[in-house]
Write a structure and sequence with these properties.
Blueprint (H helix, E strand, L loop, with lengths): L3 E10 L2 E11 L4 E5 L6 H9 L6 E6 L2 E2 L5 H6 L2 E3 L12 H9 L7 H6 L2 H20 L15 H13 L5 E5 L7 H16 L3 E5 L3 H7 L2 E6 L2 E6 L1 H5 L2 H11 L2
Parallel strand pairs: 3-8, 3-9, 6-7, 7-8
Antiparallel strand pairs: 1-2, 1-4, 4-5, 9-10
Helix pairs in contact: 3-5, 3-6, 5-6, 6-7
Bound molecules: adenosine-5'-triphosphate (ATP) and magnesium ion.
Length: 254
């Protein structure tokens, strides 16, 4: 059974059909890419999967269970993690603290116990710190743990966003344009981290405009155009698809 299934997912904003009848499967330990022109609906689809938006029609299934109506915190708890297209880092906080913020989805001790510094809070704090260090380890940023987030170059900022999502212990990780703005060396380092995370058992769905990166890293590619899926298949097939070239790849590959 697929880990994640989308069935006829549609999202309407007023008079705009941002997504129309989108369906595909995501299988365990796959790296799948979602590509398409600006405004095609890629981020909107992420929002529908993660519970940030409720689709106007269609279903989202997690291992066959209908999770369409689940709110974002519950999806996170069920193992669907994400990064955002625009940076959500706290520049004044350290790298480690930025990851610990992501961990809060996993801890249960409330504000009162934090304030009173009850043993349960202290234990969770120690666990959060350890889990955050583990997440930094997974993206090769342990050396940076105590530096302010603002001191990181862009490539490492993107790795830090990934570490923060990893700290919620996802089984599925959604990455929204992780390679945007990165130079070749940073993109190569990102690819190494994404592959390693996949090899450790995490399933990856990523949105990206960097076609070199997409074709290099993905097992399968889904192409959206004006909210509709126009193609799906292995990278070589997508690169040769005439409709995809007309809608998108023609200009991206130039
Ligand atoms: N909350 C919203 N309310 C109204 N319209 C929205 C909302 N979110 C997205 N849209 C619209 O839906 C369409 C799809 O937007 P989306 O951000 O999903 O595109 P995208 O494929 O991620 O594009 P990009 O590659 O530029 O990030 C756009 O026309 C956008 O303006
Ligand atoms: Mg987007």
């Amino acid at each position: 059974m697929a880990l994640l299934t989308l069935e006829g997912v549609s999202m309407r904003f007023g008079g705009l059909d941002a997504l129309q009848d989108v369906g595909f499967h995501l299988h365990e330990q796959q790296i799948k890419a979602l590509i398409g022109p600006n405004g095609a609906g890629k981020t909107t689809l992420f929002n529908c999967i993660t519970g940030a938006l409720r689709p106007t029609a269609g279903r989202v299934l997690l291992e066959g269970r209908d999770v369409t109506a689940w709110p974002a915190h519950r999806m996170c708890h069920e193992g669907v993690g994400r990064t955002f297209q625009h940076s959500r880092l706290f520049d004044d906080m350290s790298v480690l603290e930025n990851v610990m913020v992501g961990r809060h989805a996993r801890t249960s001790a409330g504000l009162l116990s934090a304030f009173l510094r009850l043993p349960r809070h202290r234990r969770e704090e120690a666990e959060s710190r350890q889990a955050a260090m583990d997440a930094l380890w997974r993206v090769d940023l342990v050396d940076r743990a105590d530096q302010p987030a603002s001191s990181l170059p862009l490539g490492e900022r993107h790795l830090l966003e990934m570490a923060r999502a990893l700290a919620t212990e996802p089984r599925i990780l959604l990455l929204d344009e992780p390679a945007a703005g990165l130079n070749d060396e940073e993109t190569e380092r990102l690819a190494t981290s994404v592959r390693r995370i996949r090899d450790e058992g995490v399933t990856i769905l990523l949105v990206e405009h960097d076609m070199g990166f997409v074709m290099d890293i993905s097992d399968e590619v889904v192409v959206l155009d004006y909210g509709r899926k126009i193609a799906e298949g292995p990278p070589l097939m997508i690169q040769a698809d005439e409709e995809v070239i007309r809608a998108y790849l023609g200009e991206e590959l130039e």
